[in-house]
# Entry
Amino acid sequence: MSAALDTLARDIARQRRRRSARRLRLGLLMGALLLGTVALTLSVGHTITPPGQVLRALAGDDLPGVSFAVRELRLPRAVLSILAGLSFGLGGVAFQIMLRNPLASPDIIGISIGSSAAAVLAITAFGLTGMAVSLLAVLSGLGVAAAIYLLSFRNGVAGARLILVGIAIAAMLQSVIAYALARAPSWTLQDALRWLTGSVNGATLPQALPLLVSLTVFGALLLACRRDLEAMRLGDDTAAALGVSLTRARATIMLGAVGMIAVATAVTGPIAFTAFLSGPIAMRLAGPGRSPVLMAGLVGAALVLIGDFIGQQMLPARYPVGIVTGALGAPFLVYLIVRANRTGAF
Amino acid sequence: MPMQPLTVETLSAGYGQAAILRGLNLTVPTGRITAIVGANACGKSTLLRCMSRLLKPEQGQVLLDGRAIHRTPPRELARRLGLLPQTPLAPGGITVADLVSHGRHPHKGLLARWSAEDDRAVARALTATRTDTLADRDLDALSGGQRQRVWIAMALAQETDVLLLDEPTTYLDINHQIEVLDLLVDLNRDRQTTIVMVLHDLNLAARYADTLVAMKNGAIHAAGPPQEVLTEATVEQAFGLPCRIIPDPTSGKPMVLPLGRHNTTESSAA
Ligand SMILES: Nc1ncnc2c1ncn2[C@@H]1O[C@H](COP(=O)(O)OP(=O)(O)O)[C@@H](O)[C@H]1O
Ligand SMILES: [Mg+2]
# Structure
């Protein structure tokens, strides 16, 4: 009896280890893909730089015409793409898992657009610039999240109501943006447009700092709730019965996810659908088992990095990355809405 | 093993304005099986939700081992008392072993790693529910009866002294209902787990429970041994259903024969 039990326990353990090994391999593969893409984006620009020169430029050598392009243009672009993509991917998947619905991504339910609307309004109506705009964008992302939370949780139940409330708020904020742009003085438009389509144009290395800090701080919050998030996949009642303190877990996860996304939005603008796409793609790649949170972050990074490369190098004109990811995400959104009556796919 | 029974004291609870439970008192005998019966919407699920800390009472309290559960930290309570909700949700593409592993959640701290003891607890739960051969199967690919056994296995992996189950046999055909109830009796005998379950079938409730609790309109209508609770008067009052009670020839417990308006030689309507 006890021998049979031990055998079963060992089988379960073996199965689990086999799966974590698979996950690890997949993660390494994804890391290699990212590294390869970074190498590509560092060599390809207006001109093609051979890898040897790229390495020498990175090491600090002064190569005329090369060092500037690699160190000041291409490297910051790649670093920012990865950090922003990580933030969008992690923040998005946390929401999707917590609410058990891929549509519950912050870029669908009006949280990212909350940041954009505040920034556009600040620039066009109040003539603010720089840091003040970014700060306002982060705060209003958090504010919109809080509003959606308060409007949609009753007796601790959210579900579809949160998504509907979020989509309504997104539509409302969209019209705020349209109104602000229609009345905007023309000299503010250039600055305001940056907040409508995400891009890593004009990236500089110092911009990476706020992203690193936010990934560390808000990432720690998500990490602390990792197990709770996993239990919440079974529904709020079962999670609570398993000892999850729902109110606290929800608040922590929302703060972590929204914080990450709002800061990334403040740096790059809302890179369309990255938060929304990363989770489902990661789930598809990772297969059954624990929810692939980290994998979603890596997928987000790859989406932004590759999307930016496509937008810059592979299309007839140069497009910001948000246009490319937007073109990828829109059909997927339609697909999800068409089969939306079957929620709980997470 | 709790020293004092699970007790519900003058409990009032509801959702917003509507009061569902009104001043309800109940003592759940330790180490026994209690079945709760009552008409739809009389508040059975609401009671279980209060007893497991999912719903905060407006008045009164629920005591486990003399301590109010709403003042017990959730994780600590979840190591003592488990609940299987009426309609639990499973994420798509989850395997049986994965689902059952969730039962270990309250035993894992922030930094604790998955241990060999966790694997053994999962193995014990699978074995006890005879789902061990299904461990690697996809939950979606199982029959209703198998799936319900897996959910019970998840609650077992939690290794609690008290287990609350909300309609564990609903939607199952008769042989799977019996299978689940037999399993719960095994559990009660082997581990002395205190079991509280909501059942719809009065005859099965009478046969399997040591204590029968009949609810009506958010209050306890009658509670005690099935022989005392399951009377023609109680069934008539709690369910609005005229019936005859005869002894169950296989168990000696009371058995309900409902009297409808048709198909009986004695007509209740006349
Ligand atoms: N989440 C909820 N919000 C509002 N009312 C609810 C909720 N859950 C249950 N109710 C109401 O509470 C009453 C009792 O429900 P419940 O306890 O589920 O009954 P039972 O389990 O006995 O069928 C019903 O009238 C039901 O409509
Ligand atoms: Mg119920």
User: Anything to note?
Assistant: Residues B 44-45, 86, 166 surround magnesium ion (ligand 2) (CB under 6 Å).
